[in-house]
# Entry
Amino acid sequence: AQSVAQPEDQVNVAEGNPLTVKCTYSVSGNPYLFWYVQYPNRGLQFLLKYITGDNLVKGSYGFEAEFNKSQTSFHLKKPSALVSDSALYFCAVREQERAGNMLTFGGGTRLMVKP
Amino acid sequence: GAGVSQSPRYKVAKRGQDVALRCDPISGHVSLFWYQQALGQGPEFLTYFQNEAQLDKSGLPSDRFFAERPEGSVSTLKIQRTQQEDSAVYLCASSQRGSNPYNEQFFGPGTRLTVL
# Structure
């Protein structure tokens, strides 16, 4: 079975500081990994994905994530946080070799960026 | 429209009532997914369509849940005899042409169902 863990319910950071939102995953084979952001009363919005190749993936709004196979992690990062980045962030995984296309999501991490 | 749309956005039902939730995917998207998101949790997979074929319904929690996509476009999620534990946000997502599993899914705003 595939699973995702987001160990922090909430991350607090000051505007202008770097941010990291942690994600670890578990799959039997090779993973496809995704990050989504959710603003209040809105659906999930795609940020970035890892498929293969370069371990550092760049996405929307200045976000990036680093795939680490040995640590089974896919942490989301941004060099300089904005107040408008405050939202709920979800990491998701799909096993490449598994039939069916559904994503398995983590429980989410609330990011609070304070001015 | 440019994105996935869902209706109604909010639904209040009395316990025991039947409800129907609608999803309009992005035009031309082959794959369509339904997820259930309980309060304070991440979305959980319910079912998946490729065109009109329901290829995976392993996430449907009971036989009270039924989904269809008869013409390969609009989909309806039906919940019969609603229970309080069905209260959640129901998210619909679609993904690009073809069934490549690494295509990102585009989500609608969700339908918030409250069962009294």
Summary: The two ends of chain A are 41 Å apart (CA to CA). The interface with chain B takes residues 4, 32, 34, 36, 41-46, 49, 51, 90, 92, 94, 96, 100-108 of chain A (CB under 8 Å).
